[in-house]
Amino acid sequence: MSMNLVSNLFNRQLLQQTLMAGIQQGGYGAGFADGVAAGQMNILSQLGLLSAGQLSNFQNLLGGFNPRQLGNCTPGIIPQPQIGLSGPPAGQGLQKNPAGWPDGSIKTAGGYTVVPEGNTSWKVFGPDQKPGDKPVTHVSGDPHVEQKDGTRWDFTKNSDFVLPDGTRLNCQTSSEKGYAVSTGLDISNGADHVHVGGLDGKPTVGDVTHDGYEWRAQHMAENPNRDTFRLGGDGDDWFLERGGKDLGKVTGAHMDAAAGAYVQTTDGQPYNIDPNLRPPFGSDAWGNMLRGESLDRVASMGLDPASANVIGQLFHADHSSTQLQEGMADLQQFSGPFGALRMLFQGPGEAFAAVGKMGDALNSLQSLQGDLMLNRAASWMM
Questions:
Q1: Which of 137, 241, 258, 305 is most open to solvent, judged by the fewest CB atoms within 10 Å of its CB?
Q2: Which range of residues forms the domain containing residue 331?
Q3: How many separate domains does the chain show?
Q4: Dihedral (Cα; 125, 131, 134, 138), 10-degree rounding
């Protein structure tokens, strides 16, 4: 199933159309999630991963949509893919050991830097910050969260932290009850994924792997109701989402004896974020964010982890093939006599960047091919 899914051109074009339709219907920003939601129903039903009962339940979740919007996204009446509806941009999601930062730091496509210090401590710095600045967020101890504005609160359970550029961090803790500590992080942005272990001692930071979409989809499907904290407001506020419900901005926390865990205090206000904190429209980081947020919604709709992993492979294929096409198009402008003149006056920087984008995309596609071969071998052995 996996091989047919990611190699089917129609499925890839369908995904591209759905993403673009989300922009057109919902606009950019907070409205995107609503604008693309109806299209998710179509993807799942087209791929045979959504039963009639689940389809009905999903339609109930879309009560805010009018019949015309739903009709435009139901199977059987989707317009054929058009050349103008190309895939959104895609680029490198994570960079390990960025210049000037401590060893083991991870920089995201949107410019955030995660620094796993160890001894239970890890920090998140904003795009405009430098080493030595007070971080946007500092997590340490059991685990205590200190925001840049001085707000302090705590959490206990394995939880997710989502940055404004769509990066998802899963913080593993030593226990689901009591006074736990951070033990590890999984960080995903676009097709990239980094695992950090030993956070409660001396951290070990793995290499950047190209299974970001697959990890993210399976992670969401395994427990869509886990506590998720989203960075918003003016850039240093965290908003709590639990069971698909927005509970508001976190203002504090207390140890609940009955629950045996920290419970956060929230103000009940809906999630909001300064639009300037989102990646620029049309940038590579924006393309990564678009796919990541869309995948989160798909994988949280009741899929089993194996099916969610397949959906992640589809997103992976779309990301990497789009990235490869973009690199080829960027390099094309330097071909021929006029391209040589462009190179002469502008320098080789853009050409080198295009080659780098193509190389990253090819490495990512090779990683996907290897995973598919392993999946096929495993199916033969069963």
A1: 258
A2: 2-90+282-381
A3: 2
A4: 50
**Does residue 174 sit in the same domain as residue 39?**
no
The per-residue DSSP string of 161-203 comes to EE-TTS-EEEEEES-SSSS--EEEEEEEETTEEEEEE-TTSS-
Q: Please list, in sequence order, all residues whose beta carbon lies within 8 angstroms of the beta carbon of residue 115, skipping any fewer than 6 positions away.
A: 101, 102, 104, 105, 122, 123, 124, 125, 135
Query: Does 210 lie in the same domain as 64?
Result: no
DSSP strand pairing (228-232 vs 159-162): parallel
Residue in this structure with the two tokens 């960027």, named with its chain if needed: 330
The alpha carbon dihedral of 55, 68, 23, 326 has a sign of positive
**Domain finish residue from 237, 259, 277:** 277
Q: What is the pLDDT of residues 306-336, one digit of tens each?
A: 888 888 988 898 888 888 888 888 877 877 7
Please give the distance of CA 161 from its chain centroid, rounded to a whole number.
11
pLDDT bin (cut points 50, 70, 90) of residue 40 is: very low
Percent of the chain with pLDDT over 70: 72
pLDDT exceeds cutoff 50 at 46: no
Strands (E), the chain: 94-96, 106-108, 113-118, 121-125, 137-140, 144-147, 152-154, 159-162, 168-173, 182-189, 192-197, 204-205, 228-232, 237-242, 245-256, 261-266
Q: How far apart are CA 130 and CA 115, in angstroms?
A: 12
